[in-house]
Amino acid sequence: MKTFITILILGLSTTSFAQVTNIPDPNFEQALIDLGIDSDGIVNGQVLTSDIETVISLNVENKGIQDLTGLEDFAALENLNVSFNMMTSLSLTNNVNLKELIFNTSFNLVDIDVSNNINLQSLRSSYSLLTQLDLTNNPNLLELILGEPSPAGNHLIEFLDLSVHSDLIKLQLINLEYLRIVDLRSGSNNILTDVFVECTLDGGFDCEPYPCFMVDDIVAAQNNQFPYSEWEALVTYSEDCTAGLSDNKVATYSIHPNPAKNELFITAQNTTENLKIKIFNIEGKLLRAQSITLQDQKAIDVSQLLSGIYFLNIEDENGNTAVKKFIKQ
User: Buried b / exposed e across 116-149, counting CB within 10 Å, b at 16+?
Assistant: First the structure.
């Protein structure tokens, strides 16, 4: 009898102290059940941490997921595919073993954090609403593929710093309409021979101006010598792509308050006074277009917008554009 009671107590103790991970999105948990990862087989908002902490590859493509909370406890994860889902943000700071990340057709994704993924080797995304992609803490990156062969506008990224990626061997940037500057001064351009950069607008016209690339050997690039002769890239080359842009850089614009309730104010330094303003919703639909003069008007009426995430496209008289994300309360 004592033996039975002891076993029962130990069993209850083990159950009581079993570590669990919260999975608030039922679609995410159902995907884990379908993959045989969630051992209890029940959508109950949680999964045993022991079920997920040794998973190396996870593909939850096209599962209607809006919230990937719980992903942080996939401690051994190396390969992740979260394409065709509806999350607005993606934080992978706890997934330090991650090597491959795919988030194709992420229509709602506006924020991503890969700042702690030092082992990341491959990143691929055909579509997102990202306005920036910080890869400076991913020095082991081997390939970066952004965009897809469709009309331009599939990402809102304007600047890419790839100067720390000395192992990069493949770079594809397709139809990134807002891309302006890429820093490729890694010291290892000689191994980067698989490069494809193009951008086409509706109607078949090239996106202009072409993005400006800073590379290891500007003379060789401008004279189409190796390795740049191997690149298929509609770009310009410069020792300093920021030269002459101080009046128009994105950093000179700021908007406030954010979130906004009734009015959104634009602050600008060293830029032209006349601006064209466009507001897009999270699906990329143009909702409003107007021209403003900063001297007379710095506030934009957003009171009629529904609560949600929007993008403000700012274009100056020289055709330079900046994109700012804001939230309407």
Answer: bbebbbbbbbbbbbbbbbebeebeebebbbbbbe
The answer regarding whether domain 18-119 maps to CATH 1.20.1090.10 reads no
Closest CA relative to residue 131, chosen from 286, 322, 265, 267:
322
**172 HSE (CA, 13 A, CB side):** 13
Give the pLDDT of residue 194. 97
Of 142-146, 171-175, 225-229, 319-323, minimum mean pLDDT range: 319-323
Residues in the chain: 329
- Residues contacting 203, CB < 8 A, separation 6+: none
The pLDDT confidence band at residue 308, using thresholds 50, 70 and 90, is confident
Domain spans in the chain, listed from the N-terminal domain onward: 18-119, 131-243, 250-328
The tokens describing 238, both together, are 């410069």
